Structure prediction request, 228 residues.
Amino acid sequence: MNPGDLLAETPEPPYYAVIFTSLLTPDTAGYAEAAERMFELVKTIPGYLGADGARDGVGITVSYFRDEPAIAEWRDHPEHAETRERGREQWYEAYELRVAKVERAYGFRRSTVD
Amino acid sequence: MNPGDLLAETPEPPYYAVIFTSLLTPDTAGYAEAAERMFELVKTIPGYLGADGARDGVGITVSYFRDEPAIAEWRDHPEHAETRERGREQWYEAYELRVAKVERAYGFRRSTVD
Prediction:
């Protein structure tokens, strides 16, 4: 989700954040492969800006999109829809999906003086 | 962060999400205690609605607030400001803070039929 353990880099706001929090069932067969596939697939959506993800018990994925049409295109992607359905049938005990408009953002990077 | 490994329960939108993503330095002495203390402290802020958090490499904490004044009150809390400063000095390699207005939300809970 965060290749090389880097934080997602996003443009100046405004843009959108899709916040997906979830709890898994014990039946996670196929889940990791599907998650990896979805992560590759979302990159093909025009207006997809990046994502951050972590799981320890609760899983959180925050995906960033340029605008609402980009979010709709991802939601309506047939393979994504199919995988979501499998998620509800098999992998997810519970989830929450929140669509939020990012209004402002601040970053910090440690300055390295060698 | 998520007591009993439950997802945060939030009211109907609109409300705000403060999305904090971070990478830690190797020097995490005191970090867990400070994170726990901040989690207790934020609960005292009127308008704080809950939070979800996970870390595996990248850390993500999404805190939910009723409105902007609640976010400002948390930002300006003296002990929080002090801990943020220590974070920049010691614990954080990098972070991003995004303030986003949640416009809509959907939930799923597995129905249990025994």
Notes: The interface with chain B takes residues 1-2, 5-8, 10, 13, 16-17, 19, 21-23, 25, 52-60, 62, 88, 92-110 of chain A (CB under 8 Å). Residues 78-91 of chain A form the longest helix (14 residues).
